[in-house]
Amino acid sequence: MCGDSCCTKELEKEAYKYNQILVDKYIRSSISKVSSILDIRARKFDEHFQGMMKQSKKEFHEMFERTYGKIYLQNSDVFIDFFVELETYYRKGTVRLSETMDTFFGILYQRMFKVINAQYMFDDAYLECVSGHMTDMKPFGDVPHKLGIQLRRSFVATRTFHKALVRGAEAADRLADLKVNADCYAASAAMRYCGACRGQQESGGGVCSGYCTKTMQGCFGVYGEVSPSWDSFVDAIDKVSERLLGPYNIEIVVEPLNIKISEAIMNFQESGLNVSRKIYSLCGKPPQYSRPKRDGPPAVGFDSRPKREGAGLREGPPSEGLEIEIEPMRGTGGRRKHKKTAATVESRSALEKIILDIKQKIKETKQFWLNLPYQYCNNLSLLDPSNDTAPCWNGTNTSPTPTHPRTSDAPLLPPLLSEQTFALQGLTDKLRKAHQGQEVEMVDDTEEVLDGSGSGSGDGDEEDDVEPPSRPDEKEEEEEDRGIVFTAEEDGRNNEVVAPVPSSTREPEVVRASGGARTVEGMSLQRALVCYLVPIVLAWFGGAITNLL
Questions:
Q1: Which of 150, 287, 381, 484 falls between 20 and 30 A from 426, CA-CA?
Q2: How far from 486 is each of 58, 117, 180, 327, CA to CA, in Å?
Q3: Residues with Cβ within 8 Å of residue 53, at least 6 apart in sequence
Q4: How far is it, in rounded angstroms, from Cα 130 to Cα 268?
Q5: What is the domain count for the chain?
């Protein structure tokens, strides 16, 4: 290894082995630091995101229970399934957010349409016709469209950001397993020890800087091939983080979900009569129920008075049918609460601070792969920076002018390097799509892709950890066991229909109601007077006839 020197063959072999350990340790420790930067922050980001979702669900349940009372508890499966779908997308990517939003509002549309028109019977064909005209009717106003865009962009960017951090850490960790060749070990060992074996470093200043750098560039040149792909990946992460701190901020979208969905419900309540008339003209008028029952539990429906304090609801003057008028809930308080302004670092949320930290730390990894040779020479104290003009070991003799050994042609890229470079390029492409607001499919090899899902799936090791949120505790009362009581008004009369609550809302379903379960609760003033006075008049008239006879 060192040629004619005072070092024996055995000593040279020991030096070779020791140098091999040093080189491998340097590669492993340096790359592991980069991998840890991404992995630790990805875990922290995920932890805070999960906490935010949990808090949002809690606030959603509390507000809707306070606002809509029992009707929400009986229909809570619609909203719980909606949150489950959002969480499933974030974890696994097995759903399309656009389809999730369409399904959610489609189910909500069917249920509310049956509430408003509960005096009629609807079969599957009729409800299919109703759903077919939902886009034209726009019963919820522009809330589904705006909310759908915001949710899709924010969740896509958030999930892609998190998954890119996780997979970027995995790619770096796998690159640490890439071994340098035997020529590298021999050249770096000769650079490190042969000067001493030849007695050339006794008065010298160590290894020449150029000699060390050139030697290690030849050793680590294979890692330099990763640098362009890695730097592009870092730039893409940085751009998506800017979106998450700005227009795609997931907290601004998720936290006020209760306000936005409640606004959609109020929009439908306002336009319910007009929507029903248009549907009748397009789909025909459905048959009415007959033989109403005279007893039953108190009516509960979306048109019942919400209980939320300060929600923009007020009781109007008594109408002919003794109904309670409800004004749409504007939700200004909620919107004002979640309105974001230009924030300083101190005023940002915990999740935003994590994103800022990721943005800063990952920027520091640019040029990391190209700097491996320089860091190696500096970290191992092979150079003597105290005197640049002092004699140094250049590989052949002690000279103030270092020489550079001839390097061989670059070898073919190892398969492991090609695989991880390709993986980084794929992540960069997905990050760019997320930055542009496009839907991103990230297929995980550890998870089976669902047929017809149209998107990739998540990490397989997370499957067992996914637990759907617990449903709100419902009071065990007889009225809830009977089902939802829908209320509607026609010709001054109130007709109510009891319908069973479906157990799932994955697809739009028909909520059937039987004729025998009908009840009559409300009564207009005129009808009450008639019911009260007619028996008296008949009794008086009958008595008069008897006296005449």
A1: 150
A2: 27, 8, 74, 19
A3: 83, 86, 87, 90, 254
A4: 14
A5: 1
Contacts of 194 (CB under 8 A, 6+ apart): 1, 2, 3, 5, 7, 393, 395
User: Residue 110 falls within a domain, yes or no?
Assistant: yes
The residue type found at 323 is: E
330, 312 in Cβ contact below 8 A?
Answer: yes
Q: Using H for helix, E for strand and C for coil, what is the string for 480-521?
A: HHHCEEEEEEECCEEEEEEECCCCCCCCCCCCCCCHHHEECC
Task: Evaluate whether 498 touches 483 at the Cβ level (below 8 Å).
Answer: yes
Residue 502 lies in a domain: no
In a domain, 305, yes or no: no
Q: In sequence order, what are the residues at sequence separation of 6 or more whose Cβ sits closer than 8 angstroms to the Cβ of residue 221? A: 410
Q: How many Cβ atoms from other residues are within 10 Å of residue 535's Cβ?
A: 10
How many CB atoms lie under 10 A from the CB of residue 55? 13
Per-residue pLDDT for the chain (549 aa), expressed as one digit of tens each? 676 667 778 888 888 899 999 999 999 999 999 999 999 999 999 999 999 999 999 999 999 999 988 888 888 899 999 999 999 999 998 888 989 999 999 999 888 888 788 888 888 888 888 888 888 888 899 999 999 999 999 999 999 999 999 999 999 999 999 888 888 999 998 888 887 776 655 545 578 888 889 999 999 989 999 999 999 999 999 999 999 999 999 999 999 999 999 999 999 988 888 888 898 888 888 888 765 544 443 333 454 434 433 333 333 333 333 232 333 333 333 444 444 444 555 678 889 999 999 999 999 999 999 999 999 988 766 555 554 556 777 777 554 444 444 444 445 678 899 999 999 999 999 999 999 988 888 755 444 333 333 333 334 333 333 343 444 443 333 333 333 333 333 344 444 333 333 333 344 443 333 333 333 344 445 544 544 454 454 455 455 444 544
What type of residue sits at position 419? E
In a domain, 511, yes or no: no
- 8 A C-beta contact, residue 92 and residue 457: yes
- The phi, psi pair for 472, rounded to 5°, reads -60, 140
Distant-in-sequence, close-in-space partners of 382: CB < 8 Å, separation ≥ 6: 191, 192, 206, 207, 212
> What is the phi/psi pair of residue 81, to 5°?
-60, -35
| Residue listed under structure tokens 């020791």 | 18
Tell me the whole-structure pTM to 2 decimals: 0.70
